[in-house]
Amino acid sequence: MTNTASFGFDNSYARLPDRFFVRMPPTPVIGPRLIKLNHRLAQHLGLDPEELSSTEGLEILSGNQVPDGAHPLAMVYAGHQFGGWVPQLGDGRAILLGELIDRDGVRLDILLKGAGRTPFSRGGDGRAVLGPVLREYIVSEAMAALGVPTTRALAAVTTGEIVMREEPSPGAILTRIAQSHVRVGTFEFFASRGDVEALRLLADYVIARHYPEATESENSYKALFDCVVARQADLIARWQLLGFIHGVMNTDNMSIAGETIDYGPCAFMDTYHPETVYSSIDLAGRYAYCNQPEIAHWNLSCLGKALLPLLAEDEEAAIDVAKDALDTFPGQFDAAYLAGIRSKLGLAEKRAGDMALAQDLLRRMEENKADFTLTFRGLSRLPGAHPEIDASVSQLFENPAAFDSWALEWRRRLAEEHQTDAARQRAMRGINPAVIPRNHLVEEVIIAAAETADFAFCEELVSVLSSPFEDQPKFSRYAMPPRKDQIVRETFCGT
Ligand code: AMP
Ligand code: MG
Questions:
Q1: Closest ligand 1 atom number to CA of residue 89
Q2: N or C: which end of the chain has fewer CB within 10 A?
Q3: Which one of the ligands is nearest to 113 CA?
């Protein structure tokens, strides 16, 4: 990587006006060490994994050297955090190196998270800690394998520096890849300052980069808003269908491109309960599992408000336009969720009672503390006509009879389908994962890495999670829910 031009940067964001960011390089670290490199992703980006793993590559991934063609910068944005307005935020510990075009022709940001202080750091040290860097690596890569739109993890390095959190912790940097880092909060920043020129530039930028189809509409800004609403409805439905809880759905953590972004105190549910919260800072449960659709809708209303100056000449007309788009969110979410839950139940056809059937199962799962992932995976194995192996699923319920009586209804419904058992089971296995990044395992990996610098377990977990829809009998421990003494009730966002 001496010829670092091999990145092939083309930095469109850096060509926007100066008030969109602060140009600055990452802050060097004393002792970088590569702990994880995503070879397949590197290749997809047209990068050479060997070069990235070399000493020169490590210098770049740790921020010690700025590669040729990069235009490093910290982006400015604002946001609503836990519902409260914060007029200025920004990359307080991240540096965008630039953009490259992947093998599919998609423009992607390459960003170092934990790259040092910036003018947006407020009181923070600009650094990230090994544990949360590993969590973001593991969970974001698992989400990608599960087919959920998400930012990706290209690499994780330790810095050789100690970072002060609740206790001294090893510093680390994550190299994050994203379709872009434009957030709802980026629009809010310019809107709140009445900088309509910048708002328009940003909207045009986002349309050109993410939603070129919007230019075909009479009102391309309305079309842009429609597109973002549609992507978010789809994204949140996918989260709900997998039991994923983001944990900090602030508007500065909501991507305009519709990717899951800013993994902090996130987690997947084990036993099903709609009010599950993991984040240690979410005391009121604002970002609980069951609230995620409503919160996304609320965040989109913030985006709509920010877009008002672009939507119509006078404000009242603009509000009507924004409302029209916003009001489609619940319907789009419900449709995406219903289609998804039908597939989870193995139903290829549509019947009026399908949602009720799903809700009945979920209610029984809640009452009986059934594991979300294992219940649906188990269902994927059951024959359509005979209940003889139903115990493999009903034993997940405190009262197995609660499942058995539901299964009677399910089979009645399956009898109306026209697909074979084998085809149904195959389809179900393709969407009901066998393995998810269970919180207790992620914690185990983090502890092993942070306390004993043992990354073997992390390697294995990442590898198992890369094929989430396959039964991997040799690694069955990764599919198991936590024992009582392994349950992790809280996750921290001190990335
Ligand atoms: P988050 O919700 O984790 O995305 O963080 C919210 C804001 O706080 C972002 O603007 C971050 O850049 C900033 N921030 C978080 N941690 C740090 C840190 N250690 N140093 C500086 N800024 C930080
Ligand atoms: Mg953030």
A1: 10
A2: C
A3: 1
Question: To the nearest 10°, the Cα dihedral for 334, 338, 344, 345?
Answer: 140
Q: What is the pTM of this model?
A: 0.97
- Model confidence over 474-485: pLDDT tens digits? 999 999 999 999
Residue 253 alpha carbon, nearest atom of ligand 1 = 4
Of 30, 7, 197, nearest to 102 by C-alpha is 7
Give me ligand 1 centre to Cα 281, in Å.
Answer: 14
Residues with CB under 6 A from ligand 1: 89-93, 120-121, 124-127, 248, 250, 253, 262, 264, 493, 495
CA dihedral of 194, 198, 200, 204, whole degrees rounded to 10: -160
Which residues pair with residue 153 across a beta bridge? 176
Side-chain half-sphere CA neighbours of 476 within 13 A: 3
Ligand 1 center from residue 174 Cα (angstroms): 14
Q: What CA–CA distance (Å, rounded) separates 241 from 285?
A: 20
Whether the Cβ atoms of residue 112 and residue 22 lie closer than 8 Å to each other: no
Q: Residue 494: its pLDDT value, please?
A: 54
Residues 397 and 395: their CA atoms lie apart, in Å, by 5
Q: Which two tokens stand for residue 406?
A: 């539901």
- Mean pLDDT along residues 464-480: 97
Substitution candidate for ligand 1 out of 75, 111, 120, 181 with most atoms within 8 A of CB: 120
Q: Greatest CA separation found in the chain?
A: 67
**pLDDT at 6 (0 to 100):** 77
Query: Which residues are identified as catalytic?
Result: 252
Q: Whose CA is nearest to atom 12 of ligand 1?
A: 92
Residue among 152, 353, 157 at smallest CA distance from 257 = 152
Q: How far is the CA of 170 from the centre of ligand 2 (A)?
A: 21
- Closest alpha carbon to 294 in 373, 244, 240: 240
Question: What are the residue boundaries of the structural domains of the chain, listed by start?
Answer: 13-184, 345-429
**Mean pLDDT computed over 49-70:** 97
Q: How long a stretch of residues is the chain?
A: 495
Q: Give, in order, the Cα–Cα distances in Å from 298 to each of 185, 204, 479.
A: 13, 23, 34
